[in-house]
Structure formats: C-alpha cells, structure tokens
From TrEMBL:
Stretches assigned to the CBS domain: 9-68, 77-132
Keywords tagged on the record: CBS domain
UniProt protein name: CBS domain-containing protein
Provenance organism: Noviherbaspirillum suwonense
InterPro entries: CBS_dom (IPR000644), CBS_dom_sf (IPR046342), CBSX3_CBS_dom (IPR044725), Diverse_CBS-Domain (IPR051257)
Source lineage: Bacteria, Pseudomonadati, Pseudomonadota, Betaproteobacteria, Burkholderiales
Keyword hit for 4Fe-4S: no
Presence of the UniProt keyword Flavoprotein in the record: no
Length: 146
C-alpha cells in the first residue's frame, strides 16, 4: 500500500483550494466548479475551521430553500475536520473515509495543510496498483510458455 505522501506526489497537484467561512456559498460553489473539485477546506487565516462540499450545498442550501448568494459558508460547512498524515497508507484513508462517511481528507504535516486526498485519488491508486500487478503476472506467465 502506498502512503498518502506517495499518492499526493503521483497526483502532482500540490494546491489545496480553500475558502473563508465568511464567503458566500455561491462563491464556494463557483470555485469548486472552476477547479473541477467537490470540496474546499474552510480556513480562517492559517487555521482550518471546516470543510464544505457539494453534498453540503445540496443538502443544506438547495433542499432547505436557502439562497446561495445570501448564505455564508460557515452556515453550511462541516466544522469537524478529520485529517491524515503523509505517512499514513491508502488503506488507513479508506478505512477512515468509510467509517466517517467522508470523501475528502486534508493532509496535515507539522501543523500545516500540505494536501487534500479524495476518495477518487485513493481509488485511482488502487486501480494503478492492480494494473501493475496484472501486467507483472502476464509478463511472468508469457515468460513461462516461451
């Protein structure tokens, strides 16, 4: 199993997109759409104070009849933020996501936000590992019959 650090390195994107709790939900959703992402870290200065996701928007704005241009991110964000460290494994992340029912985990190192891991990142890593194993087995099998 790869570590979070290895997965982030392979992902190549070091940017973690964030939003202020005082920005409107409309601004947050626009940022997610522009970046092609499903979640933003909510920060006040350098402190992480929450996470806001497309799911939060659907459930806490749309279904509640709120206006996204008049609702602050702080009103819909999840204030409890689970996170992982760079040395943790894909398996650690998958277990935490499954038990906590979250799809995004900030990566914290030395009290600094250094990345964001998504369920998609973890699945891509697993598929890549499986593909490598299949190729190795095929190579081994074809070498046995040559």
């Amino acid at each position: 199993m790869k570590t979070v650090s290895q997965i982030l390195h392979a992902k190549g994107a070091a940017d973690v997109h964030a939003v202020s709790p005082d920005e409107t939900v409309l601004e947050a959703i626009r940022r997610m759409a522009e970046k092609g992402i499903g979640a933003l870290v909510v920060k006040e200065g350098e402190s992480i104070v929450g996470m806001v996701t497309e799911r939060d928007y659907a459930r806490k704005v749309i279904l509640m009849g709120r206006n996204s241009d008049q609702t602050a991110v702080r009103e819909i964000m999840s204030p409890t933020v689970l996170y992982v460290r760079p040395q943790q494994t894909n398996e650690d992340c998958m277990a935490l996501m499954a038990t906590s029912r979250v799809r995004h985990l900030p990566v914290i190192e030395h009290n600094r936000l250094v990345g964001l891991i998504s369920m998609g990142d973890l699945v891509k890593d697993i598929i890549s590992d499986q593909q490598f194993t299949i190729e190795q087995l095929e190579h081994y099998i074809s070498g046995q019959h040559a």
